[in-house]
Design a protein that fits this description.
Strand content: under 5%
Number of helices: 20
Radius of gyration: 22 Å
Largest sheet: 2 strands, antiparallel
Distance between the termini: 33 Å
Number of strands: 2
Protein backbone atom coordinates (compact mmCIF):
# COMPACT_ATOMS: atom_id res chain seq x y z
CA UNK A 1 0.00 0.00 0.00
CA UNK A 2 2.83 2.36 0.81
CA UNK A 3 4.45 1.67 -2.55
CA UNK A 4 1.11 2.16 -4.34
CA UNK A 5 0.48 5.47 -2.58
CA UNK A 6 4.01 6.65 -3.30
CA UNK A 7 3.64 5.57 -6.91
CA UNK A 8 0.48 7.64 -7.20
CA UNK A 9 2.61 10.69 -6.43
CA UNK A 10 4.06 10.35 -9.94
CA UNK A 11 0.58 10.77 -11.39
CA UNK A 12 -0.09 13.81 -9.19
CA UNK A 13 3.23 15.41 -10.15
CA UNK A 14 2.68 14.66 -13.85
CA UNK A 15 -0.67 16.47 -13.84
CA UNK A 16 0.57 19.23 -11.51
CA UNK A 17 -1.81 18.30 -8.71
CA UNK A 18 -1.50 18.23 -4.91
CA UNK A 19 0.75 15.48 -3.53
CA UNK A 20 -0.14 15.85 0.16
CA UNK A 21 -3.19 13.51 -0.09
CA UNK A 22 -0.80 10.68 -0.96
CA UNK A 23 2.31 11.68 1.01
CA UNK A 24 0.72 11.45 4.46
CA UNK A 25 -0.97 8.04 3.99
CA UNK A 26 2.22 6.71 2.37
CA UNK A 27 4.32 7.82 5.34
CA UNK A 28 1.78 6.26 7.71
CA UNK A 29 2.00 2.96 5.83
CA UNK A 30 5.78 2.89 5.72
CA UNK A 31 6.00 3.77 9.41
CA UNK A 32 3.64 0.98 10.41
CA UNK A 33 5.39 -1.41 8.04
CA UNK A 34 8.76 -0.68 9.66
CA UNK A 35 7.30 -1.04 13.15
CA UNK A 36 5.52 -4.32 12.43
CA UNK A 37 8.57 -5.74 10.67
CA UNK A 38 10.84 -4.87 13.59
CA UNK A 39 8.39 -6.35 16.08
CA UNK A 40 7.98 -9.59 14.14
CA UNK A 41 11.73 -10.07 13.78
CA UNK A 42 12.10 -10.25 17.56
CA UNK A 43 10.18 -13.54 17.63
CA UNK A 44 11.03 -16.75 15.76
CA UNK A 45 8.62 -17.93 13.04
CA UNK A 46 5.78 -20.08 14.32
CA UNK A 47 2.98 -22.12 12.79
CA UNK A 48 0.28 -19.85 11.40
CA UNK A 49 -2.94 -21.31 12.78
CA UNK A 50 -6.38 -20.96 11.23
CA UNK A 51 -7.74 -18.52 13.82
CA UNK A 52 -4.71 -16.29 13.33
CA UNK A 53 -5.20 -16.49 9.57
CA UNK A 54 -8.85 -15.47 9.85
CA UNK A 55 -8.06 -12.53 12.14
CA UNK A 56 -5.08 -11.41 10.04
CA UNK A 57 -7.00 -11.34 6.77
CA UNK A 58 -9.96 -9.47 8.28
CA UNK A 59 -7.80 -6.88 10.06
CA UNK A 60 -5.68 -6.38 6.93
CA UNK A 61 -8.70 -5.61 4.77
CA UNK A 62 -10.22 -3.23 7.33
CA UNK A 63 -6.88 -1.46 7.72
CA UNK A 64 -6.30 -1.15 3.97
CA UNK A 65 -9.71 0.38 3.36
CA UNK A 66 -9.45 2.81 6.27
CA UNK A 67 -6.02 4.16 5.32
CA UNK A 68 -6.85 4.26 1.61
CA UNK A 69 -9.78 6.53 2.40
CA UNK A 70 -7.37 9.25 3.59
CA UNK A 71 -6.40 10.56 0.10
CA UNK A 72 -10.07 11.33 -0.59
CA UNK A 73 -10.49 13.21 2.71
CA UNK A 74 -7.14 15.03 2.72
CA UNK A 75 -7.52 16.07 -0.91
CA UNK A 76 -11.07 17.31 -0.34
CA UNK A 77 -12.54 15.08 -3.06
CA UNK A 78 -14.75 13.36 -0.46
CA UNK A 79 -14.86 15.43 2.78
CA UNK A 80 -17.00 12.93 4.71
CA UNK A 81 -14.94 10.05 6.12
CA UNK A 82 -17.92 7.67 5.95
CA UNK A 83 -18.29 8.45 2.24
CA UNK A 84 -14.53 8.15 1.71
CA UNK A 85 -14.47 4.79 3.50
CA UNK A 86 -17.39 3.58 1.38
CA UNK A 87 -15.49 4.58 -1.78
CA UNK A 88 -12.31 2.94 -0.52
CA UNK A 89 -14.05 -0.31 0.43
CA UNK A 90 -15.80 -0.31 -2.94
CA UNK A 91 -12.43 0.06 -4.63
CA UNK A 92 -10.51 -2.67 -2.79
CA UNK A 93 -13.38 -5.15 -2.88
CA UNK A 94 -13.71 -4.45 -6.64
CA UNK A 95 -17.38 -3.56 -6.14
CA UNK A 96 -17.57 -0.30 -8.08
CA UNK A 97 -20.43 1.29 -6.13
CA UNK A 98 -19.78 5.01 -5.70
CA UNK A 99 -21.03 8.01 -3.78
CA UNK A 100 -19.61 10.41 -6.38
CA UNK A 101 -22.04 12.25 -8.64
CA UNK A 102 -19.53 14.48 -10.46
CA UNK A 103 -16.52 12.33 -11.29
CA UNK A 104 -14.85 14.09 -14.22
CA UNK A 105 -14.21 17.28 -12.22
CA UNK A 106 -12.00 15.43 -9.70
CA UNK A 107 -8.19 15.57 -9.92
CA UNK A 108 -6.70 12.98 -12.26
CA UNK A 109 -4.57 11.61 -9.41
CA UNK A 110 -7.70 10.89 -7.35
CA UNK A 111 -9.38 9.18 -10.31
CA UNK A 112 -6.25 7.10 -10.87
CA UNK A 113 -6.16 6.15 -7.19
CA UNK A 114 -9.79 4.93 -7.35
CA UNK A 115 -8.98 2.53 -10.17
CA UNK A 116 -5.62 1.57 -8.69
CA UNK A 117 -7.43 0.33 -5.56
CA UNK A 118 -9.47 -1.89 -7.88
CA UNK A 119 -6.34 -3.30 -9.47
CA UNK A 120 -4.66 -3.87 -6.09
CA UNK A 121 -7.80 -5.50 -4.70
CA UNK A 122 -8.06 -7.83 -7.66
CA UNK A 123 -4.42 -8.83 -7.63
CA UNK A 124 -4.24 -8.87 -3.83
CA UNK A 125 -5.24 -12.52 -3.68
CA UNK A 126 -2.27 -13.40 -5.90
CA UNK A 127 0.36 -11.18 -4.31
CA UNK A 128 -0.68 -11.34 -0.65
CA UNK A 129 -1.54 -14.99 -0.38
CA UNK A 130 0.45 -16.87 -3.01
CA UNK A 131 3.61 -14.76 -3.19
CA UNK A 132 4.15 -12.82 0.04
CA UNK A 133 2.77 -15.25 2.63
CA UNK A 134 5.05 -18.17 1.66
CA UNK A 135 8.01 -15.81 1.77
CA UNK A 136 7.03 -14.92 5.31
CA UNK A 137 7.07 -18.64 6.19
CA UNK A 138 3.35 -18.68 6.87
CA UNK A 139 0.84 -21.37 6.12
CA UNK A 140 -0.48 -19.76 2.96
CA UNK A 141 -3.25 -22.31 2.41
CA UNK A 142 -4.87 -21.27 5.70
CA UNK A 143 -5.11 -17.67 4.51
CA UNK A 144 -5.66 -18.51 0.86
CA UNK A 145 -8.90 -20.37 1.54
CA UNK A 146 -10.32 -17.23 3.16
CA UNK A 147 -10.06 -15.04 0.10
CA UNK A 148 -10.58 -17.24 -2.92
CA UNK A 149 -11.72 -20.63 -4.02
CA UNK A 150 -8.55 -21.48 -5.96
CA UNK A 151 -7.55 -24.62 -4.12
CA UNK A 152 -6.40 -26.83 -6.96
CA UNK A 153 -2.66 -27.46 -6.71
CA UNK A 154 -1.60 -27.06 -10.32
CA UNK A 155 2.09 -27.01 -9.44
CA UNK A 156 4.07 -28.35 -6.47
CA UNK A 157 5.53 -24.91 -5.79
CA UNK A 158 2.57 -22.63 -5.11
CA UNK A 159 4.82 -19.57 -5.01
CA UNK A 160 5.99 -20.28 -8.54
CA UNK A 161 2.37 -20.54 -9.66
CA UNK A 162 1.66 -17.25 -7.92
CA UNK A 163 4.21 -15.45 -10.06
CA UNK A 164 2.75 -17.01 -13.19
CA UNK A 165 -0.76 -15.88 -12.27
CA UNK A 166 0.63 -12.43 -11.52
CA UNK A 167 2.14 -12.30 -15.02
CA UNK A 168 -1.20 -13.37 -16.55
CA UNK A 169 -3.00 -10.63 -14.60
CA UNK A 170 -0.49 -8.02 -15.72
CA UNK A 171 -0.56 -9.34 -19.29
CA UNK A 172 -4.36 -9.05 -19.53
CA UNK A 173 -4.13 -5.48 -18.21
CA UNK A 174 -1.47 -4.42 -20.74
CA UNK A 175 -3.29 -6.15 -23.61
CA UNK A 176 -6.53 -4.32 -22.83
CA UNK A 177 -4.72 -0.98 -22.55
CA UNK A 178 -3.29 -1.54 -26.03
CA UNK A 179 -6.66 -2.49 -27.53
CA UNK A 180 -8.38 0.52 -25.97
CA UNK A 181 -5.66 2.82 -27.32
CA UNK A 182 -6.33 1.39 -30.80
CA UNK A 183 -9.97 2.38 -30.33
CA UNK A 184 -9.05 6.02 -29.77
CA UNK A 185 -9.27 6.14 -25.98
CA UNK A 186 -6.68 8.30 -24.24
CA UNK A 187 -3.83 6.65 -22.35
CA UNK A 188 -5.10 7.82 -18.96
CA UNK A 189 -8.62 6.54 -19.57
CA UNK A 190 -7.30 3.31 -21.07
CA UNK A 191 -5.24 2.58 -17.97
CA UNK A 192 -8.09 3.43 -15.60
CA UNK A 193 -10.64 1.34 -17.48
CA UNK A 194 -8.23 -1.58 -17.83
CA UNK A 195 -7.45 -1.53 -14.10
CA UNK A 196 -11.18 -1.63 -13.37
CA UNK A 197 -12.03 -4.23 -16.03
CA UNK A 198 -9.43 -6.92 -15.35
CA UNK A 199 -10.09 -6.56 -11.62
CA UNK A 200 -13.86 -6.68 -12.38
CA UNK A 201 -14.26 -3.45 -10.41
CA UNK A 202 -16.28 -0.89 -12.35
CA UNK A 203 -14.93 2.56 -11.45
CA UNK A 204 -14.82 4.74 -14.57
CA UNK A 205 -13.24 8.19 -14.85
CA UNK A 206 -16.37 9.25 -16.75
CA UNK A 207 -19.70 10.33 -15.24
CA UNK A 208 -21.62 8.14 -17.70
CA UNK A 209 -19.38 5.08 -17.29
CA UNK A 210 -18.75 3.71 -20.83
CA UNK A 211 -22.05 4.83 -22.38
CA UNK A 212 -20.40 7.47 -24.54
CA UNK A 213 -17.71 5.25 -26.03
CA UNK A 214 -17.70 3.57 -29.44
CA UNK A 215 -19.11 0.07 -30.06
CA UNK A 216 -15.54 -1.22 -30.54
CA UNK A 217 -14.49 -0.06 -27.07
CA UNK A 218 -17.64 -1.46 -25.50
CA UNK A 219 -17.02 -4.86 -27.08
CA UNK A 220 -13.38 -4.85 -25.90
CA UNK A 221 -14.38 -4.03 -22.33
CA UNK A 222 -17.17 -6.64 -22.39
CA UNK A 223 -14.80 -9.40 -23.50
CA UNK A 224 -12.18 -8.48 -20.90
CA UNK A 225 -14.81 -8.42 -18.17
CA UNK A 226 -15.51 -12.06 -18.99
CA UNK A 227 -11.78 -12.83 -19.05
CA UNK A 228 -11.44 -11.27 -15.61
CA UNK A 229 -14.38 -13.36 -14.42
CA UNK A 230 -12.79 -16.59 -15.65
CA UNK A 231 -10.81 -18.75 -13.25
CA UNK A 232 -7.17 -17.70 -13.61
CA UNK A 233 -6.23 -21.36 -13.43
CA UNK A 234 -8.01 -21.71 -16.79
CA UNK A 235 -5.83 -18.93 -18.22
CA UNK A 236 -2.82 -20.78 -16.85
CA UNK A 237 -3.87 -24.00 -18.57
CA UNK A 238 -4.55 -22.22 -21.88
CA UNK A 239 -1.11 -20.63 -21.92
CA UNK A 240 0.49 -24.01 -21.24
CA UNK A 241 -1.68 -25.73 -23.91
CA UNK A 242 -3.32 -28.03 -21.37
CA UNK A 243 -6.59 -28.02 -23.27
CA UNK A 244 -7.89 -31.21 -21.70
CA UNK A 245 -7.98 -29.47 -18.32
CA UNK A 246 -9.92 -26.60 -19.89
CA UNK A 247 -12.31 -28.96 -21.63
CA UNK A 248 -13.05 -30.77 -18.37
CA UNK A 249 -13.67 -27.58 -16.39
CA UNK A 250 -17.40 -27.83 -15.67
CA UNK A 251 -17.64 -24.38 -14.13
CA UNK A 252 -16.19 -22.64 -17.21
CA UNK A 253 -18.74 -24.11 -19.59
CA UNK A 254 -21.61 -23.53 -17.17
CA UNK A 255 -20.46 -19.92 -16.85
CA UNK A 256 -20.35 -19.43 -20.64
CA UNK A 257 -23.77 -21.05 -21.08
CA UNK A 258 -25.34 -18.67 -18.55
CA UNK A 259 -23.75 -15.69 -20.34
CA UNK A 260 -24.95 -16.91 -23.74
CA UNK A 261 -28.53 -17.73 -22.69
CA UNK A 262 -28.95 -14.48 -20.73
CA UNK A 263 -27.55 -12.42 -23.62
CA UNK A 264 -29.81 -14.05 -26.21
CA UNK A 265 -32.87 -13.70 -23.99
CA UNK A 266 -32.30 -9.98 -23.36
CA UNK A 267 -31.39 -9.35 -27.01
CA UNK A 268 -34.72 -10.85 -28.08
CA UNK A 269 -36.72 -8.60 -25.77
CA UNK A 270 -34.76 -5.48 -26.75
CA UNK A 271 -35.35 -6.20 -30.45
CA UNK A 272 -39.07 -6.86 -29.97
CA UNK A 273 -39.90 -4.21 -27.37
CA UNK A 274 -37.60 -1.27 -28.27
CA UNK A 275 -36.55 0.63 -31.38
CA UNK A 276 -32.96 -0.72 -31.26
CA UNK A 277 -31.59 -2.59 -34.26
CA UNK A 278 -30.19 -6.12 -33.85
CA UNK A 279 -26.54 -5.08 -33.38
CA UNK A 280 -27.35 -2.43 -30.79
CA UNK A 281 -29.67 -4.82 -28.94
CA UNK A 282 -27.04 -7.55 -28.88
CA UNK A 283 -24.26 -5.17 -27.82
CA UNK A 284 -26.26 -3.68 -24.94
CA UNK A 285 -27.38 -7.13 -23.82
CA UNK A 286 -23.92 -8.69 -24.09
CA UNK A 287 -22.24 -5.78 -22.32
CA UNK A 288 -24.66 -5.60 -19.39
CA UNK A 289 -24.77 -9.36 -18.92
CA UNK A 290 -20.95 -9.43 -18.94
CA UNK A 291 -20.86 -6.50 -16.54
CA UNK A 292 -23.31 -7.92 -14.01
CA UNK A 293 -22.28 -11.57 -14.14
CA UNK A 294 -18.60 -10.61 -13.82
CA UNK A 295 -19.56 -8.29 -10.92
CA UNK A 296 -17.80 -5.40 -12.69
CA UNK A 297 -20.63 -2.89 -12.84
CA UNK A 298 -19.81 -0.83 -15.94
CA UNK A 299 -22.84 0.53 -17.78
CA UNK A 300 -23.31 0.92 -21.54
CA UNK A 301 -27.01 1.70 -21.16
CA UNK A 302 -29.61 2.35 -18.46
CA UNK A 303 -31.14 -1.10 -17.99
CA UNK A 304 -33.85 0.39 -15.75
CA UNK A 305 -35.47 1.64 -18.98
CA UNK A 306 -35.46 -1.81 -20.57
CA UNK A 307 -38.57 -4.00 -20.88
CA UNK A 308 -39.47 -5.55 -17.50
CA UNK A 309 -38.56 -9.10 -18.58
CA UNK A 310 -35.02 -8.00 -19.53
CA UNK A 311 -34.61 -6.11 -16.25
CA UNK A 312 -35.69 -9.20 -14.31
CA UNK A 313 -32.87 -11.18 -15.92
CA UNK A 314 -30.39 -8.51 -14.83
CA UNK A 315 -31.77 -8.62 -11.28
CA UNK A 316 -31.39 -12.41 -11.16
CA UNK A 317 -27.79 -12.12 -12.37
CA UNK A 318 -27.04 -10.00 -9.28
CA UNK A 319 -26.96 -13.30 -7.35
CA UNK A 320 -24.75 -15.30 -9.70
CA UNK A 321 -21.14 -14.11 -9.67
CA UNK A 322 -18.30 -15.24 -11.90
CA UNK A 323 -15.97 -18.19 -11.65
CA UNK A 324 -14.07 -19.29 -8.58
CA UNK A 325 -10.42 -18.32 -8.75
CA UNK A 326 -11.24 -15.06 -10.50
CA UNK A 327 -11.41 -11.50 -9.23
CA UNK A 328 -15.22 -11.57 -9.12
CA UNK A 329 -17.51 -11.55 -6.11
CA UNK A 330 -20.91 -13.14 -5.59
CA UNK A 331 -21.92 -16.71 -4.89
CA UNK A 332 -19.81 -18.00 -7.83
CA UNK A 333 -20.79 -20.28 -10.68
CA UNK A 334 -19.33 -23.47 -9.19
CA UNK A 335 -21.65 -23.24 -6.20
CA UNK A 336 -24.68 -22.66 -8.43
CA UNK A 337 -23.68 -25.59 -10.60
CA UNK A 338 -23.24 -27.91 -7.61
CA UNK A 339 -26.51 -26.74 -6.07
CA UNK A 340 -28.40 -27.42 -9.31
CA UNK A 341 -26.82 -30.87 -9.57
CA UNK A 342 -27.76 -31.61 -5.96
CA UNK A 343 -31.39 -30.75 -6.68
CA UNK A 344 -31.36 -32.92 -9.81
CA UNK A 345 -29.84 -35.86 -7.97
CA UNK A 346 -32.40 -35.48 -5.18
CA UNK A 347 -35.30 -35.80 -7.59
CA UNK A 348 -33.64 -38.78 -9.26
CA UNK A 349 -33.20 -40.46 -5.90
CA UNK A 350 -36.91 -40.03 -5.24
CA UNK A 351 -37.70 -41.83 -8.50
CA UNK A 352 -34.98 -44.47 -8.06
CA UNK A 353 -34.44 -45.04 -4.31
CA UNK A 354 -31.89 -47.81 -4.78
CA UNK A 355 -29.68 -45.87 -7.17
CA UNK A 356 -26.42 -44.31 -5.92
CA UNK A 357 -25.52 -40.83 -7.12
CA UNK A 358 -22.29 -38.97 -6.48
CA UNK A 359 -21.86 -35.23 -6.79
CA UNK A 360 -18.96 -34.41 -9.12
CA UNK A 361 -17.14 -31.29 -10.31
CA UNK A 362 -14.46 -31.46 -13.00
CA UNK A 363 -14.65 -35.28 -12.90
CA UNK A 364 -13.87 -35.30 -9.18
CA UNK A 365 -16.30 -36.68 -6.62
CA UNK A 366 -17.17 -34.33 -3.78
CA UNK A 367 -17.48 -35.56 -0.23
CA UNK A 368 -20.73 -34.98 1.71
CA UNK A 369 -18.93 -32.33 3.78
CA UNK A 370 -17.92 -30.42 0.64
CA UNK A 371 -21.42 -30.65 -0.73
CA UNK A 372 -22.89 -29.41 2.54
CA UNK A 373 -20.47 -26.50 2.61
CA UNK A 374 -21.87 -25.27 -0.72
CA UNK A 375 -25.42 -25.37 0.61
CA UNK A 376 -24.36 -23.66 3.84
CA UNK A 377 -22.62 -20.86 1.96
CA UNK A 378 -25.61 -20.14 -0.31
CA UNK A 379 -27.98 -20.22 2.67
CA UNK A 380 -25.72 -17.89 4.69
CA UNK A 381 -25.41 -15.56 1.71
CA UNK A 382 -29.20 -15.30 1.33
CA UNK A 383 -29.71 -14.82 5.09
CA UNK A 384 -27.25 -11.91 5.10
CA UNK A 385 -29.02 -10.48 2.04
CA UNK A 386 -32.38 -10.58 3.84
CA UNK A 387 -31.01 -9.09 7.09
CA UNK A 388 -29.20 -6.31 5.23
CA UNK A 389 -32.27 -5.49 3.16
CA UNK A 390 -34.47 -5.28 6.24
CA UNK A 391 -31.92 -3.01 7.94
CA UNK A 392 -31.88 -0.59 4.99
CA UNK A 393 -35.70 -0.54 4.81
CA UNK A 394 -35.87 0.28 8.53
CA UNK A 395 -33.38 3.12 8.01
CA UNK A 396 -35.57 4.61 5.28
CA UNK A 397 -34.87 3.13 1.84
CA UNK A 398 -37.64 1.80 -0.38
CA UNK A 399 -37.81 -1.96 -0.84
CA UNK A 400 -36.35 -2.09 -4.38
CA UNK A 401 -33.45 0.22 -3.51
CA UNK A 402 -32.75 -1.65 -0.27
CA UNK A 403 -32.75 -5.15 -1.75
CA UNK A 404 -30.73 -4.23 -4.82
CA UNK A 405 -28.23 -2.19 -2.77
CA UNK A 406 -27.49 -5.16 -0.53
CA UNK A 407 -27.44 -7.59 -3.46
CA UNK A 408 -25.04 -5.46 -5.49
CA UNK A 409 -22.65 -4.69 -2.61
CA UNK A 410 -22.67 -8.21 -1.20
CA UNK A 411 -21.95 -9.53 -4.69
CA UNK A 412 -19.35 -6.80 -5.43
CA UNK A 413 -21.28 -5.71 -8.53
CA UNK A 414 -21.70 -1.92 -8.32
CA UNK A 415 -24.99 -0.56 -9.66
CA UNK A 416 -28.38 -1.87 -8.62
CA UNK A 417 -32.02 -0.94 -9.10
CA UNK A 418 -34.28 1.81 -7.82
CA UNK A 419 -32.37 4.84 -6.53
CA UNK A 420 -28.97 3.14 -7.05
CA UNK A 421 -29.33 2.28 -10.74
CA UNK A 422 -26.59 2.35 -13.40
CA UNK A 423 -26.84 6.13 -13.93
CA UNK A 424 -27.29 6.94 -10.20
CA UNK A 425 -25.07 6.60 -7.12
CA UNK A 426 -25.17 5.87 -3.39
CA UNK A 427 -24.57 9.44 -2.16
CA UNK A 428 -28.17 10.04 -1.08
CA UNK A 429 -28.22 7.10 1.35
CA UNK A 430 -27.85 7.82 5.10
CA UNK A 431 -24.45 7.21 6.69
CA UNK A 432 -25.83 4.22 8.58
CA UNK A 433 -26.84 2.59 5.30
CA UNK A 434 -23.42 3.28 3.80
CA UNK A 435 -21.70 1.61 6.77
CA UNK A 436 -23.95 -1.45 6.44
CA UNK A 437 -23.29 -1.66 2.70
CA UNK A 438 -19.53 -1.25 3.28
CA UNK A 439 -19.66 -4.22 5.64
CA UNK A 440 -21.62 -6.15 3.00
CA UNK A 441 -18.81 -5.46 0.51
CA UNK A 442 -16.18 -6.77 2.93
CA UNK A 443 -18.31 -9.79 3.81
CA UNK A 444 -18.81 -10.66 0.16
CA UNK A 445 -15.15 -10.16 -0.79
CA UNK A 446 -13.91 -12.38 2.04
CA UNK A 447 -16.60 -14.97 1.29
CA UNK A 448 -18.59 -14.37 4.50
CA UNK A 449 -17.02 -16.73 7.00
CA UNK A 450 -13.76 -14.98 7.84
CA UNK A 451 -15.66 -11.99 9.24
CA UNK A 452 -18.69 -13.88 10.56
CA UNK A 453 -16.47 -16.22 12.58
CA UNK A 454 -14.78 -13.30 14.33
CA UNK A 455 -18.07 -12.08 15.83
CA UNK A 456 -18.94 -15.52 17.24
CA UNK A 457 -18.13 -16.09 20.94
CA UNK A 458 -16.51 -19.46 20.21
CA UNK A 459 -13.82 -17.85 18.07
CA UNK A 460 -12.22 -16.19 21.10
CA UNK A 461 -12.20 -19.29 23.29
CA UNK A 462 -8.95 -21.26 23.57
Amino acid sequence: MGIALAGNLVVALFFGEAVLPFVLPALLNFTLFAGLTRTSQKKPPSQFKKKEAILTVSIAWFFMTLVSALPYVIGGAIPSFVDAWFESVSGYTTTGSTILAEIESLPKSILFWRDLTHWIGGIGIIVLVIVIMPGAQMNNYAVFSLESSIREKIHPRIRSVGYRLLIIYLGLTLLQIGLLLLGGMSLFESVCHSFATVATGGFSPKNTSVIGYSPYIQYVIAVFMLLGATNFIVHYYLIHSRFEKVRNNDELWFFLKVVMVSTLFITLFLVLKTDRDLEKSFRDAFFQVSSIISTTGFASDDYLLWPPAASVVIFILLFTGGSTGSTTGGIKMARHLLASRSIRYYFRSQLHPNAVYSLKLNNKTLSPAESNSVTAFIYSYLVIFVIGSIALVLIGSDLLTATSSVATTLGAIGPGFGMVGPVANFAHLPDASKVILSLCMLLGRLELYSILLIVTPGFWKK
